[in-house]
Design brief:
Elements: E1 3-10, H1 14-30, E2 35-39, H2 43-50, H3 56-64, E3 67-72, H4 87-97, E4 102-108, H5 121-124, E5 128-134, E6 146-149, E7 155-158, H6 165-180, E8 185-190, H7 196-209, E9 216-221, H8 222-231, E10 238-241, H9 243-256, E11 264-268, E12 274-278, H10 295-307, H11 312-327, E13 330-331, E14 341-342, H12 345-355
Parallel strand pairs: 1-2, 1-3, 3-12, 5-10, 8-9, 8-10, 13-14
Antiparallel strand pairs: 4-5, 4-11, 6-7, 11-12
Helix pairs in contact: 1-10, 1-12, 2-4, 6-7, 8-9, 10-11, 11-12
The structure holds 3-isopropylmalic acid (IPM) and magnesium ion (MG).
């Protein structure tokens, strides 16, 4: 059966980096991978065309799809729009509508990039960490929310941090299952000393862990976790956390690997249908210059092949090809260091293609 892939390039550098990942998917298609690519609008690009960052047509085609490849959304141009139609709403909307609650954000240091990290090589060498971020709940979606005017005329912004046991359990299970295939350790990150919703998070994770006797569960407050990530990141195997903490900690973790331009992600529903996207944003400051790093998007396509399309060997080939081009000294600007060869977005994509 032909697998339907929806491609949503989005804004900023999105179209450039997605084009490089598509080159690779097209190559696999020529080799016999049974996929069909369909394009849609999301984010600011969608707003400009249709007046909404998540047009019904995009949502409909994404619901029909087996997998989605997304670039990035957002940019200066749309910053002053009402929050309800800002590009980010498109991304949050599709995550929520498709029930993509499990966001996997691996942070792996390619040994070739040990020098590109701002941390000492011995601190990051061999780093292989998986952040499992809850993606469709928590403060990102909790009600009530808004900006209201108080009786004294002063404005007040408010959001709500809520988690139900079922939401905690289902993301916990994803983390434990992943840990079972890795080193068997899960660190659950919360702020249980201050926030009741994450006190429940901690209790629920502890109860759940009883069904996973082979997994070692630890707990950490988020402030400490942020510190430990830069102090001794290799202590972690799998980290599981809430939507907002995961957003913040995954950006932090990305820098351990040299550049946020290296980190892919998968957002999965209960049936492993997924959306795949780099964890970085739309980088409007460098958009259209052909200098962005396409590797996070290319590695996201590899995750798609592994998790949704069940083509682990193709995923391996992409990951090895990325390693090969790094061995060959090719670097986009964000991971460039002296003595290496600086390449553009499309040159990097072509090099990975050739290395396949
Ligand atoms: C991410 C991004 C998004 C998020 C934004 C663009 C809405 O930062 O995927 O990490 O906060 O989830
Ligand atoms: Mg983020």
């Amino acid at each position: 059966m032909t697998k339907k892939i929806v491609v949503l390039p989005g804004d900023g550098i999105g179209p450039e980096i997605v084009a490089e990942a598509v080159k690779i998917l097209e190559k696999f298609r020529e080799e016999g991978l049974n996929i069909n690519l369909e394009y849609g609008l999301i984010g600011g690009a969608a707003y400009d065309e249709t007046g909404t960052p998540l047009p019904a047509e995009t949502l409909e085609m994404s619901k029909q799809a087996d997998a989605i490849l997304l670039g990035a959304v957002g940019g200066y141009k749309w910053e002053s729009l009402d929050i309800s139609v800002r590009p980010e709403k498109g991304l949050l909307g599709i995550r929520s509508e498709l029930n993509l609650f499990a966001n996997l954000r691996p942070a792996i240091l390619y040994p070739q990039l040990a020098d590109a990290s701002t941390l000492k090589p011995e601190v990051v060498a061999g780093l292989d960490l998986m952040i499992v971020r809850e993606l469709t709940g928590g403060i990102y979606f909790g009600q009530p929310r808004g900006i209201r005017t108080l009786d004294n005329g002063e404005k007040q912004g408010f959001n709500t941090l809520v988690y139900r046991e079922s939401e905690i359990n289902r993301i916990g299970k994803v983390a434990f299952d992943i840990a079972a295939k890795r080193q068997g350790r899960v660190c659950s990150v919360d702020k249980a000393n201050v926030l009741e919703s994450t006190e429940l998070w901690r209790e629920t994770m502890t109860t759940l862990s009883k069904s996973y006797p082979d997994i070692e569960l630890s707990h950490m407050y988020v402030d400490n976790a942020a510190m430990q990530l830069v102090r001794a990141p290799k202590q972690f195997d799998v980290m599981v956390t809430t939507n907002m903490f995961g957003d913040i900690l995954s950006d932090c973790a990305s820098m351990l690997t040299g550049s946020i331009g290296m980190l892919p992600s998968a957002s999965l529903d209960e049936n492993s249908k997924g959306m795949y996207e780099p964890i970085h944003g739309s980088a409007p400051d460098i958009a259209g210059q052909n200098i962005a790093n396409p590797l996070a998007t290319i590695l996201s396509a590899a995750m798609m092949l592994r998790y949704t399309l069940d083509e682990a060997s193709m995923a391996d080939r992409i990951e090895k090809a990325v390693s090969k081009v790094l061995d060959d000294g090719l670097r986009t600007a964000d991971i460039y260091s002296a003595g290496m060869t600086k390449v553009s977005t499309s040159e990097m994509g072509d090099a990975v293609l050739a290395a396949l």
